[in-house]
């Protein structure tokens, strides 16, 4: 065997070993519409750069699909890889709850939630969905670090604290059915501050924390509050609009704030506050105050007829996928029947799922794993299409 062939053999062996070590490395999804078959292939992250829209292989083929039920095939190479999958017909938290009524703020397809442990040893993410809480819908993704306790506390309390604050605004005469009169920036800052104070009672909270991105959807607005590097993205007329801005230590304004408080950003496996934390804002992490703060940035976006869907996700998704690519994937999933199949594992679990938003969330999570994400991955997809 010559030198060239020997090197090629080493490369193939290395790639195969890596695929076995990381579990699922190649997945195929086929989204069907009446006349189009769209094939989305996720492969090795070295071949498909995270920010490259070309990583979606779109092939149009004339095809007529006669099936009337979506079939979702979920496959994972590790039995301990936990999955939380909820359809839009379920209200409450990620644990489930009551059924959503037809009065749900004009969202035609409801919502879908997927939360994967991924390649991590422990699940530190938490998600919460409360539809019709008060007069609005609430969605939250919490990405814990150092342990799951702070993220779990956010899951159990954040929506309640927001509901209490909205009710208080009503007592002040500032609340209405559409939420237009509410000072959402003040409300969210107070709510995040209250939760941050509550988690101080957790013994470990001084040394652990969680990022948080929450969305309150009203009839007329989408309110997003973000603290950390989870993210909310709105698809409007085919364009991906970021409704939050990641709090990274090297972000110019965040770097200035940290240094003004006497802190430093040290490059150690990425940019980190004091060489420790890779996000500049979080709930908890009290040992890093005043450099790391819990104050969220809040955006209020007026809803339009062009709004299609909203994605909330932890950085396990966004570290390996751009806003544009994520929106392309979801749009294809919501636009037609879909069969989602992993070709790597022989053990498959078939689920009948009526909600395409659940399918879209599942595809995003699996595609993130195929692209090399090594973090927990939590995704919420909300259909914002208004009913006529």
From TrEMBL:
Which SUPFAM superfamilies does this chain map to? PP2C-like
Report the GO molecular function annotations.
metal ion binding; protein serine/threonine phosphatase activity
Indicate whether Magnesium appears among the record's keywords. yes
Which keywords describe this protein according to UniProt? Hydrolase, Magnesium, Manganese, Metal-binding, Protein phosphatase
Q: Any idea of its EC number?
A: 3.1.3.16
Q: Where is this region: Disordered?
A: 40-66
Domain PPM-type phosphatase: residue ranges: 110-384
Q: Which cofactor does it need?
A: Mg(2+); Mn(2+)
Instruction: State where composition is biased (Basic and acidic residues).
Output: 41-65
Q: Family assignment?
A: Belongs to the PP2C family.
Q: What is this protein called?
A: protein-serine/threonine phosphatase
